[in-house]
Amino acid sequence: MVERIDLHKHLRLHLVTDSALCGARGIEAVVEAAVRGGATCVQLREKALDRRPFVERARALKALLAPLGVPLLINDRVDVALACGADGVHVGQRDMAPEDVRRLMPPGSIVGLSIESAAQMIAAERAPVDYYGLSPVFDTSTKTDAAPPLGLAGVRRIRAMTMRPLVAIGGIGFENAAAVMAAGADGLAVVSLLCKAADPADAARRLRQLMDGTP
Amino acid sequence: MVERIDLHKHLRLHLVTDSALCGARGIEAVVEAAVRGGATCVQLREKALDRRPFVERARALKALLAPLGVPLLINDRVDVALACGADGVHVGQRDMAPEDVRRLMPPGSIVGLSIESAAQMIAAERAPVDYYGLSPVFDTSTKTDAAPPLGLAGVRRIRAMTMRPLVAIGGIGFENAAAVMAAGADGLAVVSLLCKAADPADAARRLRQLMDGTP
């Protein structure tokens, strides 16, 4: 486990993995480069992989990230998170309920929940969730079952309704990163932008500059 | 949790669920009838269901089975087993490793592993497994990714090589149940035979009579 989680620091730039998009160089090389460039959190998402190699991959990433102080979240599978000692779990609306995830994970773990509308956010406000993944902000090619995009107006609207950290995902790119942050996101999550980048470290660095307003 | 698990008693007749095969009457009605007829163990297998309804269904079955003293096993998902307080987990060769399942589940839980060959059984002998599911014994239509059938000769061969309880699955029917038990199985697991039965209680009763050699 990462010693002490500072949500606002650690949730700033999520790399959500897609092993197919990472290509031949492999997921670990992309993760290492993205973190070097400024990714503050890694969410391992494996929808097609068998559980045994999923656990092995999760352990390899945990070993890579722990010395760097970067939290590892597991998408959906609480048992994989427990097996590899991950720092948290990210679930969607149809995954295990956040109450159950919280109860099964060790104290201090991060529990994230995907929110596709203001109504879902309101329903989740009583649930033991640390941050919301706002999804999708824009059109995205990575997720085929995504809801209609929230747009910047949707981010602003949800921002006005909750104190919880908001991580925006879906169609995030260099051209809109600053606008999404200005609309009230606390962090951004990207799949393609880093997994497909020729130089993931450089892509993460540029994205952080745009998010942070640094030159 | 069922108070005290007696493996030879509780593993005798597994009902492995298939909600589609259970049809409109629903999985709970089939489970209740099968247990009334003589099923000693229920394994909830849900390959297509979202996690949230999976947990809800598991809790409903646990509530149904606990007063009857019948253990509930969950196929593959350790997190669902933990969330619903199941008595154990059954994993396949590509699921989470038995060592990890054992570590995550409470002490005294049942851990079952599918074995498709003598070589897999030998490799598993050092793993913390309570019973082997021998799969498939015969041709089966329920599992599309099944290995070649072991046949009665395969059951006999594996029986001679391990002290662990063996639960045979795959193409088990009234016509071969006694022969599979005679070949050395400690129990049988069935999907179609009970889930598709017009009268699951009667089907379970007939199967138990054939297995137990009672009139």
From TrEMBL, chains A, B:
Pathway participation: Cofactor biosynthesis; thiamine diphosphate biosynthesis; thiamine phosphate from 4-amino-2-methyl-5-diphosphomethylpyrimidine and 4-methyl-5-(2-phosphoethyl)-thiazole: step 1/1
Name of this chain's protein: Thiamine-phosphate synthase
Thiamine phosphate synthase/TenI domain boundaries: 13-192
Gene name linked to the record: thiE
Organism annotation: Roseateles agri
Cofactors: Mg(2+)
NCBIfam families, per the entry: thiE
Residues reported in the UniProt entry to bind 4-amino-2-methyl-5-(diphosphooxymethyl)pyrimidine: Q43, L44, R45, E46, K47, N75, S114, K143
A GO term, aspect molecular function: thiamine-phosphate diphosphorylase activity
